[in-house]
Amino acid sequence: MRTLAKTKEADRRRYRRLAAFLALWLALAHSAAWAGPVEGNPRRGGTLILGIAADPSTLNCGIESSQIVAMVTSNIYNGLLHMDEESNPHPDLAKSWEISPDGLDYTFQLRDNVKWHDGQPLTSADVKFSFENLVGKYNARGREAYRNIKAIETPNATTVKISLKKVYSPFLEILTAHDGCIMPKHIYENSDVFKNPRNNDQPIGSGPFKFKEWNKGSHITLVRNENYFKKGRPFLDSVIYRIIPNAATRAIAFETGEVNAIIASNSFPYQHVDRLRKVKNAVIKDIGSPSLIGVNFNLKGNPILAKREVRVAIAHAIDKKFVVEKGLRAVGKVIDSVIPPGIPWAYNANVPKYPFDLKKANALLDEAGHARGAGGTRFALKLSFEAGNDNAERPVQILREQLKAVGIDIKLERLERSVMLERIFQKYDFDLWFGPLTTRGHPALGTARLYTTASITGQPFTNFTRL
Question: Which domains does the chain have, with CATH numbers?
Answer without folding.
Answer: 8-25+290-455 (3.10.105.10), 27-61+66-74+196-288 (3.40.190.10), 81-188 (3.90.76.10)
